[in-house]
Prior knowledge:
- The chain has 7 helices and no strands.
- With 178 residues, it is an all-alpha fold.
- It has a domain at 19-65 and 98-170.
- The protein is rod-shaped.
Amino acid sequence: MSSLSGNARADRARRPRAAVPAHARALAARLSALFDKDSGIAARLNGAQRRLREANDRLWSGLAPDAFGLIYDGAAPAGHSQLAELIGATVAAGEPGPPVAVLAALQEIHWQVHRSFCEYQSACEERRQLAVEVGELAVQLTDALCAAGFSQQDAQRADVHQLARAAWPASGYPESER
C-alpha cells in the first residue's frame, strides 16, 4: 500500500483492522512471481528488438538517394554498413555480379531478422497470456481482501510483494502505515 495522508491515517484508526488471510497471501505470492516473470519477458522483448535493429543496420545505414548507383556504376555512395562495404569491395575489384560474401552476408542477416522476429513474437504472446493470468489473479486477490474486511480501494492498492513476503502484520496494515 502507498503512504497515507494524515486524514487517511485518522480514518484508518477509526476502522477495525482486517487480517490478511493465508489465501490472499498465496494469491499475492503468485502475482509477485508473475510480475518477476514479466520483467524477464520484457528483457527478452528488448533483446529481440535490439537484434532486429542491429540486423537492419547491417543492411544499410545512411543510404544515398541512388544507393544502387554504387552497384551499377560506382557513382553514388552506398552508405555505411557491412553490406555496403562488401558491395564496395566487389565493385572496386571489378568483379561482375554479386559476390559470394555479399550473398552470405544477406543470408546471415535474413536469418538474424527471422530469429529475432520469431523470438519477439513468442515473447509478445507469452506476455499476453501472462497479462490474462495477472488480471484473473488480481481480481481474486481483491475479492479475498474485500472479504477479509479491506475496502475496495485498499484491496486494489495492496502491495503484492509485501503481502507475499508476509510483511503485513496480523492487523492487515504494514508497520509504515500505522
